[in-house]
Amino acid sequence: MRIAVTGTPGVGKTTVARRLADRRGVEYVDVTQEVREGASAGHDADRNVPVADIDALEDSLPDDGVLDGHIAHRLDADYAVVLRCKPSALRKRLEERGWERDKVRENVEAEALDVVLAEALAEEIPVFEWDTTDATPDETVERVAEAVEEREERHGVVDWSAHIGGVR
Fold first, then answer.
1. 30: β partners
2. Of 113, 115, 12, 13, residue with least CA distance to 72
3. φ and ψ of 160, to 5 deg
4. CA 61, CA 137: separation in Å to the nearest integer?
5. pLDDT digits (tens, 9 = 90+) for 112-133
6. Residues of the chain falling short of pLDDT 50
7. What is the pLDDT of residue 140?
8. What span, in angstroms and rounded, lies between the C-alpha atoms of 88 and 54?
9. What local confidence, expressed as pLDDT, does residue 160 receive?
């Protein structure tokens, strides 16, 4: 089974994906790194990022693994875990990482507007949504592992609409 651990940058994807892969005894795939190392269809000069080549990524995926990345849900996965974080907490996390103001705002807006969740739901695979704002990594991994094992679908439970006005 391929599990996509996805969400806005800063929500805890890498920690959860690595621990989930270890727990399941399967390969961990850093989708962003794969794009940087060649699964790219060019470079977006405006955003200064490589553009993912979904077909090239698909060719490199294991049959059984945990895919980590904010576009992991766009790959051929059997299940998507969408991690979420309260916009104000996400802003703080990204600022602490030294991110530029525009990138922080772009990602906080995407989180407030459920962008990644909407994209994952459009893929028509089971989706499990989890709020990492106050959960420890261990709590998150435990809950995600249970959801994956049970193929539980749970989405529409995180609502940041009250935070939209304070995003900027």
1. 68
2. 13
3. -100, 15
4. 25
5. 999 999 999 999 999 999 999 9
6. none
7. 96
8. 31
9. 87
Residue found under tokens 């940058």: 9
The CATH classification number of 2-157 equals 3.40.50.300
**pLDDT number for residue 166:** 56
- Other C-beta atoms closer than 10 Å to the C-beta of 25 total 7
Q: What is the pLDDT, as a whole number, of residue 165?
A: 63
CA distance 86 to 112: 8
Q: What are the extents of the domains in the chain?
A: 2-157
Strand partners, 3: 66, 79
Nearest to residue 92, comparing CAs of 108, 77, 78? 108
- CA 51 to chain centroid, in Å, comes to 17
Residue 7, CB-side half-sphere exposure with 13 Å CA sphere? 28
Q: Which residues contact 89 (CB under 8 A, 6 or more apart)?
A: 133
